[in-house]
Amino acid sequence: MENKTKTRSIDRALDIIETFTFRDPELTLVEISKRTGLALATVHRAIQTLLARGYIEQNPISGKYRLGMEFVRVGGVVIQRLDLVKIATPFLRDLSRKTEQHVNLSIYDRGEALCLVNVESFHSFRQGIQVGQRLPIYAGALSKVILAHLPAEKIEGIITDNLVSYTPQTIAQKEALLDELAAIKRQGYAESRGELALGAAALAAPMRNYENKVVAGISVSGPEHFYTGKNVGYFIGELLYTAADISHELGYSDALLKGH
């Protein structure tokens, strides 16, 4: 019963927020009540909560209500994601051209790794990640490099004793996975071989923004037989340089210098 009440309250708050438009940026309580079909007392209670949280403001002159500046902060998170794709894509295309491998960019989203960019190489490789595809956050180089840089409490909540093994190579044991994440943070990149699909290999690196926060991971991936000998060293070098270049563009001051 309590959950249903909370859900109704959220629905009402969203109904109120969605009444504001470019055409009608400011509204009275009565106007909001009429447009939402909610009782005036219900609107008043919801408005008070939204005011306290900064999502609604009251015009001190007219007394009307308008959307608050908290939406600027929240919207900035979405905008940053869109900017991330725009900024990173040319670098990722160049990385794919140099390495002749598939290249992807993923972010952490609700307990999974969400792919935002996919650049396919000319090699026929069926194990590539598609834009919009979600993958387990603990399996595969790209997912692991993102997981390794999440807050410790979030990692603890994700890593349980019931992780699914997708192949015999999946690191599904809690202690082994924690050791793997620690190693990723030390060396600055992640690697995987057959963790999600046998025969596939990948290397991944984190990208940081102006706040020194890891906002995404990028990877090169392809058939496992490509990831041997000098190829691995070359792939890692190009991957880290690309991650540094994108991080630089995102405002990260300690990114590696350009001009390599």
Topology:
Elements: H1 2-17, E1 26-27, H2 29-36, H3 40-53, E2 56-58, E3 65-67, H4 70-99, E4 102-109, E5 112-119, E6 134-136, H5 141-147, H6 152-158, H7 174-187, E7 190-193, E8 200-208, E9 214-223, H8 229-249
Antiparallel strand pairs: 1-3, 2-3, 4-5, 4-9, 5-6, 7-8, 8-9
Helix pairs in contact: 1-3, 2-3, 4-8
Word description of this protein:
The chain is an alpha+beta fold and 260 residues long. It has two domains: 2-68, Winged helix-like DNA-binding domain superfamily/Winged helix DNA-binding domain (Arc Repressor Mutant, subunit A, Orthogonal Bundle), CATH 1.10.10; 78-249, GAF domain (Beta-Lactamase, 2-Layer Sandwich). Helix content is 45%, strand content 19%. It is built from eight helices and nine strands. The strands form two sheets. A six-stranded antiparallel sheet has the order 6-5-4-9-8-7, with helices on both faces. A three-stranded antiparallel sheet has the order 1-3-2. Strand 8 and strand 9 form a beta hairpin. Helix 1 packs across helix 3 (40-53), helix 2 (29-36) packs across helix 3 (40-53) and helix 4 (70-99) runs antiparallel to helix 8. 30% of the residues are buried.
Q: What spatial form do the alpha-carbon principal axes imply?
A: elongated
* Helix coverage percent: 40-55%
Q: Which structural class do you get from the secondary structure elements?
A: alpha+beta
SSE pattern, N- to C-terminal: HEHHEEHEEEHHHEEEH
Q: What kind of sheet is the major sheet? A: 6 strands, antiparallel
Question: Approximately how much beta-strand content do the residues carry?
Answer: 15-25%
